[in-house]
């Protein structure tokens, strides 16, 4: 065991201790004021919690690497994952908050007055969250693998145990403040290396302002090597693939059950709007930095690693080659490592950066702690979504309505353990890079939930048969396209598997509209509920008239 | 409880919806619009960046953040104009969901 291992391990252990301490403290507090009405998390902190929930291993570990490898084409991820908050905050979150339910499937079931719709939504929640957690587990595998200097697969197994334990034990209530702490850890860990690199390379500690110079120099380097320039658009796919991927990620963001649930916990529609704004500000800090990471890392690799003698490579390369995610082979046998001979996995760029830039053991340890925070916080949210769908929407509401709270909790905990283990087994041999696996989860969400929620909130005529047909068609089209594109080589306009959501969403919206119009319109009560969502809490729509609650009562704190 | 005129209630909904349509149009322009015209825009340089790259890496994200804050502020103003009391809203919606 070397010093690096001890430092990284100590930092991870310290941050874990912090999260668990906060969870215990809040749990004790929560019991005492559980029945006090009006307790809400202030929007600023809720924004941080949404940020931690949202920024996963894919954002933390994978994104900068994706941008580095794909160049301009990787920016679809940056715009897609941030733009989703526009759709979510403008079109869905406040209305969903006013409707007020516990889970997304429950909203769909009650709004559309259909148990079948609720069950389909619950199954969709499980499929989407499950796919997403495969990405998280393979991310934690990268971190743990590097830390313990074992293969990424062994790292994944250790991550499975950690995440199953962490989410089954804690993570039920009072998780918000833990996620605030996780946000602070992960954003600090992400920003420190990129600020140091900016200082080293440009003399300016503001990477966001200064990496334009590096982009300029990269162009010159690319031209000298005679390879395609870094900033040239659409080198990896067609323009349509770029647009389709961006849409898939945006609509998927607005339809991810574990993110939407966060907007149920704010106090009002107004708080939902502010939470969305703060969330994107905090998320944006990381997303604005990722392309800077990508540019700096590529620059250092091109100027300091490429061109060195194969026997004289920096020490860090050896430990990453061991994880199986980096390959440096002198294929032309001239004793010098060329840029073209470096094969670097998207998933290690961020984690390797502190070593590449020689930032010291403390920063490397901090990165490991930050990456674990990102993977854990998202995995925690995903596992809660899965267990809520299973124990609340399926078990309690459909199978055993008389189940005691204790029994439901037990079903919930076991479903977490089971889901984590199965996701871990798949993550052992991941079917794609982290960002790609995660993109599939978004494609599925944009093909199922986004259309169902959008029409559910904005179109009163949409009904049960419409949403059932819509979700089934949307999911089938999305899944079908992912498989056809990935394994069958079938594409439309060059749109590959990660852009499948655009077809799924279009098919689901069309089907929902056509089937809704062809079947009986929803009850008057159901339609009035939808009109009611146009107004703030204080206004109520009833019998074709709008009423304003102007009574001066004190909130009834005993209910 | 006091009845509100249909015209007033519709006015509230229309004011909010119009703003949202405007924000979404701007948001789409800086993301989808720029990607559609990426090639011609790449000849323009902004702070060492080709413009299409700058918009993808920073410009669009910054615009999104500003739009969300503008929406939060403007919506509060609209609420105020229609006499909506934020405290009242809190007490009405309290207890309608689980606290996670």
Characterization of this structure:
- The complex is a heterodimer of chains A (559) and B (100).
- Chain A is mainly alpha-helical and 559 residues long.
- Chain A contains 20 helices and 4 strands.
- Chain A has a single domain, classed as Sodium/glucose cotransporter (Up-down Bundle), CATH 1.20.1730.
- Helices cover 72% and strands 3% of the residues of chain A.
- Chain A has a two-stranded antiparallel ribbon. In chain A, strands 3-4 form a two-stranded antiparallel sheet.
- In chain A, α7 crosses α15, α10 packs across α17 and α17 packs antiparallel against α18.
- Chain A starts with a helix and ends in an 11-residue tail after the last strand.
- The C terminus of chain A is likely disordered.
- Chain B has one domain.
- A two-stranded antiparallel sheet of chain B has the order 2-3.
- In chain B, α1 packs antiparallel against α3.
- The mean pLDDT of chain B is 85.
- Chains A and B meet through α4, α9, α10, α11 and α12 of A and β1, α1, β3, α3 and α4 of B.
Summarize the helices and strands and which ones pair or pack.
The complex is a heterodimer of chains A (559) and B (100).
Chain A: H1 3-32, H2 43-54, H3 57-70, H4 75-99, H5 104-111, H6 115-147, H7 152-169, H8 176-202, H9 207-225, H10 239-255, H11 257-264, H12 269-305, H13 315-322, E1 326-328, E2 342-344, H14 349-356, H15 361-399, H16 405-428, H17 434-458, H18 464-487, H19 501-518, H20 524-532, E3 539-542, E4 545-548
Antiparallel strand pairs in A: 1-2, 3-4
Helix pairs in contact in A: 1-8, 1-15, 2-8, 2-12, 3-6, 3-12, 3-15, 4-10, 4-12, 4-17, 5-6, 6-7, 6-15, 6-16, 6-17, 6-18, 7-15, 7-16, 8-9, 8-12, 8-15, 9-12, 10-17, 11-15, 12-14, 14-15, 15-16, 17-18, 17-19, 18-19
Chain B: E1 2-4, H1 6-36, H2 38-41, E2 45-46, E3 49-50, H3 51-81, H4 86-93
Antiparallel strand pairs in B: 2-3
């Amino acid at each position: 065991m070397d010093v690096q291992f001890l430092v990284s391990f100590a930092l991870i252990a310290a941050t874990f201790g912090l999260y668990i301490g906060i969870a215990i403290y809040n749990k004790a507090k929560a019991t005492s004021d559980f029945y006090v009405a009006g307790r809400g998390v202030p929007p600023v902190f809720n924004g941080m919690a949404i940020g931690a929930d949202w920024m996963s291993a894919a954002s933390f570990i994978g994104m900068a690497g994706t941008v580095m490898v794909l160049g301009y084409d990787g920016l679809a991820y940056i715009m897609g994952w941030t733009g989703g908050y526009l759709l979510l905050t403008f079109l869905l979150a406040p209305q969903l908050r006013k409707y007020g339910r516990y889970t997304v499937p429950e909203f769909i079931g009650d709004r559309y007055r259909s148990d079948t719709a609720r069950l389909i939504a619950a199954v969709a929640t499980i499929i989407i969250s499950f796919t997403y957690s495969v990405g998280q587990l393979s991310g934690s595998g990268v971190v743990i693998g590097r830390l313990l200097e074992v293969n990424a697969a062994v790292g994944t197994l250790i991550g499975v145990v950690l995440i199953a334990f962490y989410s089954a034990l804690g993570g039920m209530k009072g998780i918000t403040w833990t996620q605030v702490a996780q946000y602070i850890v992960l954003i600090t860990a992400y920003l420190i290396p990129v600020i140091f690199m900016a200082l080293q390379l440009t003399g300016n500690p503001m990477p966001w302002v200064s990496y334009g110079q590096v982009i300029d120099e990269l162009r010159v380097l690319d031209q000298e090597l005679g390879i395609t320039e870094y900033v040239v658009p659409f080198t990896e796919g067609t323009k349509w693939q770029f647009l389709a991927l961006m849409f898939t990620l945006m609509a998927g963001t607005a339809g991810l059950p574990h993110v939407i649930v966060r907007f149920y916990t704010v106090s009002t529609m107004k708080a939902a709007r502010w939470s969305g704004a703060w969330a994107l500000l905090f998320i944006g800090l990381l997303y604005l930095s990722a392309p800077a990471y990508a540019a700096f890392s590529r620059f250092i690799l091109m100027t300091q690693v490429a061109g060195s003698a194969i026997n004289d490579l920096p020490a860090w390369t050896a430990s990453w080659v061991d994880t199986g995610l980096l390959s440096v082979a002198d294929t032309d046998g001239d004793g010098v490592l060329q840029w073209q001979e470096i094969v670097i996995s998207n998933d290690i760029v961020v984690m390797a950066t502190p070593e590449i830039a020689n930032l010291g053991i403390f920063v490397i340890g901090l990165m490991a702690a930050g990456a674990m925070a990102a993977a854990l916080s998202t995995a925690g949210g995903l596992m809660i979504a899965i267990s809520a769908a299973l124990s609340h929407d399926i078990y309690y509401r459909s199978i055993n309505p008389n189940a005691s709270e204790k029994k439901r909790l037990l079903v919930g905990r076991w479903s977490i353990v089971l889901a984590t283990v199965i996701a871990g087994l798949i993550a052992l041999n991941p079917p794609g890079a982290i960002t790609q696996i995660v993109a599939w989860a978004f494609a599925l969400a944009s093909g199922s939930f986004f259309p169902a929620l959008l029409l559910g909130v904005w179109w009163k005529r949409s009904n049960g048969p419409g949403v059932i047909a819509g979700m089934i068609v949307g999911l089938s089209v999305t899944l079908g396209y992912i498989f056809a594109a990935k394994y069958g080589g079938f594409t439309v306009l060059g749109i590959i598997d990660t852009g499948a959501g655009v077809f799924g969403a279009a098919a689901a919206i069309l089907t929902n509209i056509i089937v809704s119009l062809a079947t009986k319109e929803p009850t008057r009560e159901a339609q009035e509920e939808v009109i009611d969502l146009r107004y703030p809490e204080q206004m109520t729509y009833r019998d074709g008239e709008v009423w304003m609650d102007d009574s001066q009562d004190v909130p009834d704190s005993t209910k | 409880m006091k009845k509100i005129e249909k015209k007033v209630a519709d006015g509230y909904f229309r004011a909010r919806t119009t703003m949202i349509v405007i924000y979404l149009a701007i948001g789409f322009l800086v993301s989808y619009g720029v990607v559609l015209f990426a090639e011609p825009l790449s000849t323009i340089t902004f702070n060492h960046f080709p413009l299409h790259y700058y918009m993808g890496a920073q410009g669009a994200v910054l615009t999104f953040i500003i739009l969300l804050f503008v929406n939060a502020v403007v919506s509060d103003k609209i609420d105020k104009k229609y006499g909506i009391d934020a405290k009242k809203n809190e007490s009405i919606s309290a207890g309608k969901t689980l606290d996670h």
